[in-house]
UniProtKB/TrEMBL annotation:
UniProt topology in membrane: Multi-pass membrane protein
Main subcellular location: endoplasmic reticulum
Compartments in which it is found: Endoplasmic reticulum membrane
Pfam families found in the cross-reference section: Seipin
Transmembrane segments: 21-45, 224-247
Protein name from the UniProt record: Seipin
Organism: Asbolus verrucosus
InterPro entries linked to this entry: Seipin
Keywords associated with the record: Endoplasmic reticulum, Lipid metabolism, Membrane, Transmembrane, Transmembrane helix
One Gene Ontology biological process: lipid metabolic process
Domain of life of the organism encoding this protein: Eukaryota
Length: 277
């Protein structure tokens, strides 16, 4: 009798450990599945927030002959550039608004200060060369009075001397504030033109920034909160699906027939063992 009770206790402990292990494995599987589903949804739903391309401006130099350049102005055509966004794959997500702007790094030279306002134009082309959108914006260097300019140079003169800073300005030109790409005509090429020949530019770059709203804004700006909420929602959904599926299984005729057969086989084995005794 003692041996039978001991064996029964061991079997109960084994069964509890087995069930606990199964429950832990299933829980871990559901959690990792929920995490994977959220990550997959995030990368499919939230696009890359920023695309940046360098802008290499070209112009036609002024010259009097093939070997003699004009000592006056250096440009005889508007500075322009061609930007290749993508070859075949679509770069921008459909239905997502984008802010598109051009940044110019310009020295505070007498030429630029005397320039005043100038126009910057951009043409957006498709893969077939068709112009899909265009925009022109005016801009200029930020004005500083003589007094403020003098104070600024006096304060920052040590940085200017040691090369830690320069007399330059970054001009931000917004070409589109709410641009959305057409599904049948993706943007592949962009042509930039600065409509003045009396400008000096250090460098330029073209930027496309996604303007998130609603769920995308929440997922991008509050990633921990949205991840916790999304993973928990996925876990609850998967758990409900598993419970409903298990309920359907245990209430099916096949499952009842299987349990009945198992019970009959066990009864038959117990009867046979009793006869043998």
């Amino acid at each position: 009798l003692y041996k039978t009770r001991t064996q029964t206790g061991v079997n109960n402990v084994r069964e509890i450990l087995f069930r606990g292990t199964v429950v832990a494995l299933i829980t871990a599987l559901l959690v990792w599945l929920s995490i994977f589903m959220y990550i997959a949804f995030y990368y499919a739903y939230v696009p890359t927030i920023s695309h940046e391309r360098p802008v290499y401006l070209k112009f036609k130099a002024c010259y009097k002959s093939l070997c003699e350049y004009d000592s006056g102005k250096g440009m005889c055509s508007f500075p322009s550039a061609h930007i290749k966004l993508t070859e075949r794959q679509r770069l921008l997500m459909l239905g997502q608004p984008y802010k598109i702007h051009l940044d110019l790094e310009m020295p505070e030279s007498p030429t630029n200060k005397d320039l005043g306002m100038f126009m910057v134009c951009a043409d957006f082309h498709g893969s077939d060369g068709k112009v899909l959108a265009n925009s022109c914006r005016s801009t200029m260097l930020h004005y500083r009075s003589y007094l403020l300019d003098t104070l600024y140079k006096l304060i920052f003169s040590p940085f200017f001397v040691f090369g830690n800073s320069e007399e330059k300005q970054n001009i931000h030109i917004e070409l589109f504030s709410d641009f959305e790409e057409i599904e049948s005509e993706p943007i592949t090429d962009i042509f930039i033109e600065i409509q003045t020949t009396h400008i000096e530019i250090y460098s330029a770059k073209f930027l496309i920034n996604a303007r998130f709203t609603g769920l995308r804004f929440l997922m991008y700006n509050w990633p921990i909160f949205s991840a916790a909420l999304g993973i928990t929602s996925n876990l609850v959904f998967i758990a409900i699906v598993c419970m409903v599926s298990w309920y359907q299984i245990i209430n099916s005729e096949e499952y009842h027939h299987y349990i009945q057969n198992q019970h009959e086989e066990k009864t038959l084995k117990d009867f046979d063992s009793g006869e043998c005794d």
